[in-house]
Amino acid sequence: MNSPMENNEECVLSERVGRCELDANLDVLRKIPVFSGIPLQRLKLYAYLCKRVCYRAGEFIFHQGDSDDRGYIMLSGSAQIVREYEDHSVFLNELREGEFFGGVALLSDIQRLFSIRATTRVECLTLDRESFRKLLVQFPEVGVKILDLMIKRIVLMEEKLMQKHVHECVYG
Amino acid sequence: MVTKKSLFSWVLERCRGLQSALFIMILFTVFFRVFPLEMQKRIVNIAIQSRNLNALFTYCGLYITAVVMAGVLKYIINVLQGYIGQKILYEMRDQLYAHILSLPLSFFRRTPPGMVISSLTSELSGPGDFLGSALAVPVINLLTLITFAGYMVYLNPLLAVLSFAIYPVEILIIPVLQKRYNRLNQDRINVTRSMSNAIGEAITGMHEIHGNASYPIENKKLDAFGSMLFRLRHRMNKNKFLVKFINNFFQSLGPFILFLVGGYLSIKGRLDLGALVAFLSAYEKLYDPWKELMDYYQDFQDSRVRYYQVMSYFDYAPEFQLKPEEQREPYQLQGKIEITDLDYVVDNDIRILDQISLDLQPGEQLAVVGFSGSGKSTLAMVIGQLYSYSRGHVLMDGMELKTLTKLDVSHNLGYVAQHPFIFDDTIMENIIYACKSLQLNQLLEEESLPDRAQILRVVDEVGLSDDILRFGLNTLLDINAHGVFAEKLINVREQFQSRWRTELAEQVEFFDVEKFLNYTNVAENITFGHPNRETWELEQLPTNKIFRQFLEETSLTSELSDLGVEMATQTVSLLEDLKDDQFFFEMSPIPRSEFDLYSTIVERIGKVGRDQLSRKELDAILKLALRYIPANHKMATLPKALEFKIIEARHEFFQKISDHAPGAFTFYQPSEYFYTHTIMENILFGHPKADHPRAMEKVQTRMVELLREQSLLDEVMEAGLAFQVGSMGDRLSGGQKQKIALARLFLKKPHILILDEATASLDNRSQARVQDLLRTEMKGKSTLIAVVHRLELVKDYDQIIVMKAGKIVEAGQYEELLLRKGLFYELAHGE
């Protein structure tokens, strides 16, 4: 996972002064549309199960083809979405602070369709599939809301694809 | 052969000196038993009647001396009997076990281990106990019996004859009953065996039972034996007590006859009353030896049955001689193998090997391939002298394999099975197992056991180095044995710190007495060391008086309580709906089992306030605060001021412990080796950060680099070799076990190697490595016979044979066989 680029900048989680991590995570989650509709008491559990991870500039957060099982929220820094081909890579998009990405992995064991590489020092809040599923089972009413929003996101993507490549987008 | 020996031959051949001593003591005992009777008579007749006080004292003194002497002698005889019995049992077990070990493999395939175990332990111990008394008891009691009888004849011949008349009747009846008992006893032993086999089988196949929830089936199996055993035991008891009843009945017939006849004679005036009373008391004395003889008889029958049952079970001859009969050195074979028309037949008509013929020159390499069930492994085992063959010839250096002794073969041949056996010992002992066996068989001189360098080279050759290194780094050193090594490691720690401290700051939180540790709990942050005593462990700290006093002195109590209350409140509110799933408690400072306790405390705080909590509740709150790990527990945070205060307190804690409980802690001082921690942790001098998943890989690489530089790597490896592998090596992976078995073989370096899919569990790299070794190092030095599953491994072999249904169907070299487009081609392309 790590591609150690020579870099002297320390990759240590930033310090939070005076507040507990749970509350800090909670604030982040509340700003993400997928999670913002969840009642506070339940959202706290998501905040409880999230982990903070830190990446150096140049390091890959995940690689295309990995079966990585996490969803990510960018806390600080920026990263690139890259689609890799055999002989070249295509830069697709830029991820910025506060963005939620890689969430499909929370729903199912899939392989990544693209790679994500930190362009600066990046700190992420991550949630793994097992935690996500456990909560889904415990509080189905909350789960349905999240699923609803996530599936809408996917449909939106599909819609974009359909517009461009309608002939290839037939399930079979 | 030990199984042919009769039960009594053990008594007659063993401990002869002790047994004759025993015999002499018995004679004295008999004397001391009869002597008081005579004294009795003299006290009455001489001392009392003639009112002679001196005589009274003398006879009484002699009487008591004789009684005490009889007691003391009886004690010594008992001890001696026990000693002799156990000694014989010990030898019997040793010899029988040695015999069992030499039995052919086929015997063990149909014999469950439980059967061998129960035979050697419980079944033999009965005969063992018996053998101690086998000679002494009958002799002592017969002699006593005869002596008393003689004394009775001396008193009154007629009455004596009359009272003895019942014994012959008894001697006729009892053996008949005993015979029935013996038959039952035999059945009991057989049922007990079947029962222990059933239990053994169930335990071996426990995963299958759990998987199928087949508890009723297994219960039923055991129940069948249980009820049979119950009925047998009941019948045996009936029989045994019937014998006792008959014996008692005849015993009481004696006085009956005496009263009837003696009374009649007395009334008629032909016998005086005094004589009758004396006679009766003498008759009473007959009872003890007779009873002991009866017990002896029953014991003897029981032991006889058990003994012969055990011995007959193992009454097979070993297939091969263990050692040469004449005094000679074991043969040094060059490794030439000629096989002609070899058959291996089981159950009289199933041919596992069918007319196998092949020739191997010394140093040649042969690969055996084929489908499973084609007889590959059997061929390997026959050549390894693990099975004997029915027809044909296997010649090694021109000598028939059947006629070679085990010692000749093991000296020249090494065999690795697909699932090699690893003994419950260290890796080291497992690797030198083969060499040690040679040494114990006096084929190697004491000094030529392989040294560390040799062992490590072999370990490296089979690709086991990384594993050993990891075990080594995770070793706890012993303060008494490794003091010098620990000193050197402290030096390594210093180097490690000065070189890598900055670079590894991401992966490791190094100990620094001036810095707060985020990856460990508050307790460790305060004590800044590792407790050596139970009362100083985290869970005990809230009730530890010195610790509490210390918290008061440094005014930490109330702030820690604040932290504890915060943690309890947050955690309880967070997890109260999730009590049923352990998953949610993995990141929680409150384990699931304690959740209700803290839930009640939080409720009480809400109702009555913190001040009203009981002492126990306050302790629980404090305990929670001490468990707080900043990096793991998100529900609370530690104020910076408290962090500083804790750091300040460390010095005082150090002082406090030095004054009040020296030795209770090993403090994290750079100059101190922590014997409670692994070598790796000692060099690291910090905690790996949990949010860096591969942190330790990088750390380990750096550490190994440094150890190699300091030439301490071999010592770490040696510590790794001392790793205990667990029963049947269950702390090792399949690949590691095979590597150990290969190392065992390569260390022995025999002239003939037999590998039965010996690299099948290895990863590709290690497999290639071993193959390489065989191709270069061993080629020309050792004849190799390898059963191989993966065909790409056989390219370089001098000969390849393809087997099918016990026959060689193709033979040749790799290219040649491929061109032939036969079975080999099919095998190669079917994969």
Count interface residues per chain for the largest interface.
A-B, 28 and 20 residues
Which second-level CATH architecture of chain A applies? Sandwich
Please indicate the count of domains of chain A.
Answer: 1
- Total number of β-strand segments of chain B? 14
**Helix coverage percent of residues of chain A?**
25-40%
Strand content of chain B: 5-15%
What oligomeric state do the depicted chains represent?
heterodimer
> Uncertain segments of chain B of ≥5 residues (pLDDT<50)?
none
Largest sheet of chain B: 6 strands, mixed
| Secondary-structure-derived class of chain B | alpha/beta
Count the helices of chain B. How many? 31
Output the radius of gyration of chain A.
Answer: 17 Å
Topology, please?
The complex is a heterodimer of chains A (172) and B (831).
Chain A: H1 21-30, H2 33-36, H3 40-49, E1 51-55, E2 60-62, E3 70-76, E4 79-84, E5 89-95, E6 100-101, H4 104-107, E7 115-118, E8 122-128, H5 129-138, H6 140-164
Antiparallel strand pairs in A: 1-8, 2-7, 3-6, 3-8, 4-5, 4-7
Chain B: H1 7-13, H2 16-48, H3 53-101, H4 105-110, H5 113-133, H6 136-155, H7 157-164, H8 166-204, H9 206-212, H10 215-267, H11 273-313, E1 337-346, E2 350-360, E3 365-370, H12 376-383, E4 391-396, E5 399-400, H13 406-412, E6 413-416, H14 427-431, H15 433-440, H16 452-461, H17 465-473, H18 483-500, E7 508-510, H19 522-527, E8 529-531, H20 545-553, H21 557-575, H22 595-608, H23 615-627, H24 640-660, E9 665-667, H25 679-684, E10 686-688, H26 695-709, H27 713-721, H28 734-748, E11 752-756, H29 764-778, E12 783-787, E13 799-804, E14 807-812, H30 814-820, H31 823-830
Parallel strand pairs in B: 3-12, 3-13, 6-11, 11-12
Antiparallel strand pairs in B: 1-2, 1-4, 4-5, 7-10, 8-9, 13-14
Helix pairs in contact in B: 2-3, 2-6, 3-5, 5-8, 5-11, 6-7, 6-11, 7-10, 8-10, 8-11, 10-11, 16-28, 17-27, 18-26, 21-22, 21-23
